[in-house]
Specification:
The radius of gyration is 32 Å and the shape is elongated. The chain is α+β, with helices and mostly antiparallel strands. The strands form seven sheets. A five-stranded antiparallel beta sheet has the order 2-1-11-10-9, with helices on both faces. Strands 15-19-18-17 form a four-stranded antiparallel beta sheet, with no helix packed on it. Strands 3-6 form a two-stranded antiparallel sheet. It is built from eleven helices and 19 strands.
Amino acid sequence: MKKWLMCVLILLMMAPAVQGKDTKKSKNTSKAVQKKAENASPAQEKEVPFQALIVMEAGTGQVLEEVNPHLKHPLASVTKLMTAAIVMEKLESGAAQLNETITVSGAASKMGGSQVYLKEGEVFTLEELMKAIMVASGNDAAYAVAEHLAGTTDAFVEEMNKKAKRLGMNDSEFHTVHGLPPSSENQADVSSCHDLMILARDLLKYPKLLEWTALQIEPFRGGAFIMHNHNKIIGKLPGTDGLKTGYYSKAGFNIVATAKKDGLRLIVAVLGSPKAKIRDAVAIERFKKYLAQYQMAVLSKKDQAFGEVLQVPDGMVTTVQAVAAADFSYPLPREKKAAVKNEIRLPKEISGGIEQGQTLGEVEFFLDNQSIGKVNLISPVTIQKAGFFKRLFR
């Protein structure tokens, strides 16, 4: 019993000392955390997810969201989209063929950064090297293609800048065919989200390009080298089929991506993200948001009748029904389709005869009193002018 009491007394005497040590330790920990917080930079406290962003519907060019759309920013390998635009233009005109062969030069084989490890003297088709550019972001492949098609890479860059001017890409300036970071005496390839939308919409005219940019993996050099797409959104988000990523330290992580769902195609550009995962997450979040909120509302179909029947008093047939000259769809918030109004402009009668396809008037569509588009209304048939006696008899 005495021994038991003695143990209790010893424990009671030790308790304050132990508690004091814990309290002291707690105070020291609090001070360390506070000091760490005081020394933390604003960037560490809240990382900026991007420097510029734009979300656009591809068909109409309607901007759904934008942040710093005209900020001129280093592109890194996104530059290769303009390289691809020149190649696709040459293919369309017949100045180049997908099956033509390209012999790798010594200069092309010495390119650094992302590459497919081309060796001097190797021979590939243009299509093989285009896949290497668009899937593996091969700087060596871009150099080899440009050199082959234009004689020199400088001449190819000149074509890139001329095309940028033709397209109205006024925020853009190209100095390389690949987008590698510039040396001290050179300048970076720069563009803006606004300009990249112009370029992306131009590239979407070419289904073959989307075939390449949609590839997740692709064998190269007879399967000896397996290329993996740098655009990791491909496969993560259904409907994504392009276009290009880019990175170096001063440029940050960039992307121009496109995805389609139920006839609605969106393009998203993100420039200057601090991490690839942040860039991709921003793009995926925007795709999911706007693909869910918007739909491509069909407002007119080719040959759809509009307006009242028109009188053709001088014709062999005396009436005609005007029809739409083309399909017209517009990206609308899902709840807004019923709010679209149209205004039909047609004369009450047409004198003389009418040719098939002749413009008779137009229909204009409005949302919240703002015009969102027009479609010509045409004659679906030819109506010959009646002879003098037939008209006199009438």
